[in-house]
Amino acid sequence: MCGILAVLGCSDDSQAKRVRVLELSRRQHRGPDWSGLYQHGDCYLAHQRLAIIDPASGDQPLFNEDKSIVVTVNGEIYNHEELRKKLAHHKFRTGSDCDVIAHLYEEYGEDFVDMLDGIFSFVLLDTRDNSFVVARDAIGVTSLYIGWGLDGSVWISSELKGLNDDCEHFESFPPGHLYSSKSGGFRRWYNPPWFSEAIPSVPYDPLVLRRAFENAVTKRLMTDVPFGVLLSGGLDSSLVASITARYLAGTKAAKQWGAQLHSFCVGLEGSPDLKAAREVADYLGTVHHEFHFTVQDGIDAIEDVIYHIETYDVTTIRASTPMFLMSRKIKSLGVKMVISGEGSDEIFGGYLYFHKAPDKDEFHRETCRKIKALHQYDCQRANKATSAWGLEARVPFLDKEFINVAMSIDPEAKMIKKDEGRIEKWVLRRAFDDEEHPYLPKHILYRQKEQFSDGVGYSWIDGLKAHAARHVTDKMMFNASFIFPHNTPTTKEAYYYRMIFERFFPQNSARLTVPGGASVACSTAKAVEWDAAWKNNLDPSGRAALGVHLSAYDAETPLSIKPSKVIDSIPRMDFPGVAIQS
User: Fold this and answer.
1) Which end of the chain is least crowded, N or C, by CB within 10 Å?
2) Contact (Cβ atoms closer than 8 angstroms) between residue 131 and residue 139
3) In the β-sheet with 177-180, what is the strand arrangement from edge to edge?
4) HEC readout, 33-76
5) Is 341 assigned to a binding site?
6) 266 labelled as ligand-binding?
7) How many Å apart are CA 118 and CA 213, to the nearest integer?
8) Which of 372, 460, 359 is CA-nearest to residue 412?
9) Residues 85, 4, 345, CA angle at the centre, nearest 5°?
10) What Pfam families does this protein map onto (predicted)?
11) Which secondary-structure segment (H or E) carries 267?
């Protein structure tokens, strides 16, 4: 995962400005296997490269034949070979998958973006008229920000830290959009059927869903560097690992790096989820790497996590910390790319609170809302926690074609119905329930997401809360609304994170990039309306969802929970490769 920084229409074309742009670019800890700066008049394009495809010759910027079109890009274009065939009369300078972008622009103008199948953020400069186009991938898997300087310049950066000190105003670049200097504004290029939130009616076909996800995983095996999978032992990461292991042997990657898959997991010592990950790894025959951390290790990393993830959202920071620690370990082994399981819960309604969806229409609309917000939560965590150490995360559940298939299913099939034996994400589980050629053991395939077991994370969360309580006083909380009028922290843990964030990013624009609002068990604010009791007991971690689990499963459900523990429990979020012990 690379880092890009562009300053377009700058009034200063001095050597000092070049040095400043390059210095800001290097704040983005993304690799680098190569870094560089291109200048054309008052426009600067800088890049920090993490080379995954064509490491030898794919350095940036990328050009068309006469170098009149210049591109700096962060991402992976999975259908680049197919696109090259459509551009057969063009001459390509490198083997980079992103080399197609400049040539597509020559052929199709600004309307080519929807032809790209992959994850990307790019800046394209047309030197013939000094116009430029900026675009971000459909869901926002890659991070991107846009800012404006007092001198009229437009700034583009993969991270906040690349532009927050130099722009008068900046904001998150909306996913699925492009910004054109010719029109002077944003335009949404990604317009799938589900985006309107109209209720679909396609009957559920498990084989169609299975094939779509297998395609999403296998296309992400495109790599010229060592890679692996993040494996927590939960459903999503286990399916990703199973499909990767099943199809790896016939790929170019296997010929280069061997056909035995490597898997990675991190957790507090003794965590039951570490045991689950080992069980899946043994079943699939992966080379499994298990990393341990302590609560103190996590606390010590909090400031670095907030600096790199660029958020003060509580649940994002809690989940990012072990992933951040694991990524450093993985990179130290020489691995540069991992495949992960983010996005499944948003698409299939896997979170605890979906038990309370009043009907299929509202169930579907909530999944749409969750997918649209992913770039502010799980995508931001997965992208930045890994790229901080020069590691790239690929997320097949967020494949454009797979989302189209999954979101076209009549949501009645996704509804959770205990009397029919349908638990969360039943349609996904059923799609991979193959008796003849099993993908996973049955007890893993049908393992329930919200296991209130000893492994869900009491000591990690409680350790964070205790640490925050030592640094945030009651008096500070009493005045929180005056100190932080926007997204006012309501807990000492949230106040603690906010103080650190504001120290790194003190601008008002920075605090506005972080989402807020009412939430229960990771819901959107709209879903809080599903249960009147939630409105008085809001907690984004899920602790407020008392009764959701109890009403969804009867006493015969083999979950081994203690009623006295339920209020203090956190439902398992299945962060891929992350296992946390109580």
Assistant:
1) C
2) no
3) 62-63, 69-77, 118-126, 131-136, 177-180, 185-188
4) CEEEEEEECCEEEEEEECCCCCCCCCCCCEECCCCCEEEEEEEE
5) yes
6) yes
7) 15
8) 359
9) 80
10) Asn_synthase, GATase_7
11) strand 262-267
What's the 3-state SS for 187-249? EECCCCHHHHCCCCCECCCHHHHHHHHHHHHHHHHCCCCCEEEECCCCHHHHHHHHHHHHHHH
Beta strand 337-339 with 392-394: parallel, antiparallel or unpaired? parallel
Quick one: CATH architecture of 3-191? 4-Layer Sandwich (3.60)
Type of residue found at 536 = N
Residue type, 41: G
Q: Which two tokens stand for residue 154?
A: 């437009």
* φ and ψ at residue 177, rounded to 5 degrees: -120, 160
Of 180, 464, 425, nearest in space to 295 by CA: 464
pLDDT string in tens for the chain (582-residue length):
578 888 998 877 677 777 787 777 766 665 565 677 889 999 999 887 565 555 555 577 899 999 999 999 998 999 999 999 999 999 998 888 999 999 999 999 999 999 999 999 999 999 999 999 999 999 999 999 999 999 999 999 999 999 999 999 999 999 999 999 999 899 999 999 999 999 999 999 999 999 999 999 999 998 888 899 999 999 999 999 999 999 998 888 888 888 889 999 998 888 877 888 999 999 999 999 999 999 999 999 999 999 999 999 999 999 999 999 999 999 999 999 999 999 999 999 999 899 999 999 999 999 999 999 999 999 999 999 999 998 999 999 999 999 999 999 999 999 999 888 899 999 999 999 999 999 999 999 998 764 333 333 568 888 999 999 999 999 999 999 999 999 999 999 999 999 999 999 999 999 999 999 888 778 898 998 998 888 776 666 554 454 554 444 443 333 322 222 222 333 334 556 665 544
The whole-angstrom separation of Cα 171 and Cα 463 is 33
Q: Break the chain into its structural domains and give their ranges.
A: 3-191, 195-544
Q: Do domains 3-191 and 195-544 have the same CATH topology?
A: no
Write down the number of H helices and E strands in the chain.
21, 18
In terms of phi and psi (left: phi > 0; alpha: psi -120 to 50; beta: otherwise), the region of 285 is left
Active site residues: 2
Judge whether 569 is annotated as a binding position: no
Q: How far apart are CA 353 and CA 530, in angstroms?
A: 9
97 is in an annotated binding site: yes
Nearest to 456 by CA among 562, 328, 530: 562
SS3 of 163-191: the string is: CCCCCCEEEECCCCEEEECCCCEEEECCC
Rounded CA-CA distance 151/581 in Å is 52
Tokens of 568: 């203090």
**Is 340 part of any known ligand binding site?**
yes
**For the residues of 467-524, what is the DSSP string, one character each?**
HHHHHS-HHHHHTHHHH--SS---SHHHHHHHHHHHHH--SHHHHHTS--S--BTT--
Cβ(438)–Cβ(340) under 8 Å?
Answer: no
> How far apart are alpha carbons 46 and 61 in whole angstroms?
8
**21 alpha-carbon distance from chain centroid:** 27
Task: Kindly report the backbone phi and psi dihedral angles of residue 276, in degrees, each rounded to the nearest multiple of 5, phi listed first.
Answer: -65, -40
Q: How is residue 296 written in tokens?
A: 């103190």
Q: Is the four-CA dihedral 245, 251, 253, 254 of positive or negative sign?
A: positive
CATH superfamily of 195-544: HUPs (3.40.50.620)
